[in-house]
């Protein structure tokens, strides 16, 4: 089973993915955790280029092709082999991030983006995508605090430095895109304690496990 996690900054995605990993292990499944950008060896180099604060001058289409390159490599070298080995693959961000950030966020055509995603994904779409949804002001506050605490404000601060209106577009974009992909993308409200949010996610996963 292939599950991806999406959402704006500061939804608590990382915390929830760890909880989901523990849950699958508790029911006897082997789990492989990964992320985008940066889930493969080559992808780690692409991630550094994409997120560094000195690369603010990146053109929207350059950014797009780097994310797609990261995904193509990730699918070929990591995700497909891990799924074939029978593991549950949990991925922090995937193709929907491209449609939402580069499309609804940066203004590239979402239909074209989805076609390019098809090339990168090579037939391997997630069985389930969990969208953690939160008010952008709250999410941004959480993300900025986390970056300061972890001393990563410079290396990974490029997105957090974007204006709040960009984050609002992203949040609305996610909700629009989720409505267009209801069968695969399920929304979990992330404005609650980590345990409460996890209960919401767990019921989505249990429903998926029951009908697969
Ligand atoms: P990261 O530090 O992993 O953010 P988060 O902790 O919020 O997941 O940075 C990833 C950033 O890259 C995030 O702001 C979204 C962006 N992104 C895109 O713009 N397009 C994409 O296709 C992907 C995968 C990520």
Report on the structure:
The protein is α/β, with parallel strands linked by helices. It has a single domain (2-211), classed as 3-Layer(aba) Sandwich (Rossmann fold). It has eight helices and five strands; from the N terminus they run E-H-E-H-H-E-H-H-E-H-H-E-H. A five-stranded parallel β-sheet has the order 2-3-1-4-5, with helices on both faces. Helix 2 (41-51) runs antiparallel to helix 3 (60-84) and helix 4 (95-105) packs across helix 7 (164-180). The protein is globular and about 45 Å long. It starts with a strand and ends with a helix. The mean pLDDT is 93. Thymidine-5'-diphosphate binds at residues 9, 13, 36-37, 51, 67, 92-93, 97-98, 101-102, 156, 159.
């Amino acid at each position: 089973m292939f599950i991806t996690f999406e959402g704006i900054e500061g939804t608590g995605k990382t915390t929830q993915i760890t909880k989901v990993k523990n849950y699958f292990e508790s029911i006897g499944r082997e789990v492989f955790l990964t992320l985008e950008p940066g889930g493969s060896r080559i992808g780690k180099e692409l991630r550094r280029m994409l997120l560094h604060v000195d690369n603010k001058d990146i053109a929207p289409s350059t950014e797009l092709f780097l994310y797609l390159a990261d995904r193509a490599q990730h699918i070929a070298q990591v995700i497909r082999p891990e799924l074939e080995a029978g593991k549950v693959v949990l991925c922090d961000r995937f193709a929907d991030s491209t449609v939402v950030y580069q499309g609804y966020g940066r203004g590239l055509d979402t239909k074209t983006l989805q076609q390019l995603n098809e090339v990168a994904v090579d037939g391997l779409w997630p069985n389930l995508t969990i969208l953690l949804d939160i008010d952008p002001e709250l999410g941004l506050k959480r993300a900025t605090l986390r970056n300061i605490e972890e001393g990563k404000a410079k290396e990974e601060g490029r997105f957090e430095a974007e204006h709040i209106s960009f984050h609002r577009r992203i949040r609305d974009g996610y909700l629009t895109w989720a409505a267009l992909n209801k069968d695969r993308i399920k929304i979990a409200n992330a404005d609650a304690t980590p345990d409460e949010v996890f209960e919401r996610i767990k019921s989505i996963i249990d429903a998926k496990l029951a009908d697969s």
